[in-house]
Amino acid sequence: MESMFAQRHISRRHLLQLAGTAAAMPALPLITVRPAQATPAMLASAIRNLVGEAKVNVGKIQLDIPPLVENGNTVPMTVSVDHPMTPEAHVKSIHVFNEKNPQPNVANFHLTPSAGRAQVTTRIRLADTQKVVAIARLSDGTFWSASVDVIVTLAACTEEMP
Length: 162
Fold this sequence. Notes:
alpha+beta
């Protein structure tokens, strides 16, 4: 009578199939769906990390982003600053933040007077309906901002990157 723990013989073909499956496992994408973790408090903290104790003024900057988007995976955005781009007075950087994506800092653009114009255009992902904030740092040390509330009908940023 054979024991229920009797040794099983594995054919060479079966062993190669198992080895091939095991080798392919790391290539399979691991996707974990999780809710966006950023909050309005995280947005405020990220902005404070950029500006320190400096006052953030409203104006000089225009944030062109659709107020209603069907798909949050690819949202067109243009940020422009009404300021000269001379060596004496220019826009040093433009920063874009959001309220509800997993990370509050969306993009950072560093400019020099040779850029000729303080304008950047890109596409961003938005996890949900939220506020998007753009802040420009000028060469005189001042900060200027603009914000837009964007309604997103199909959310993005729900997949965790491996």
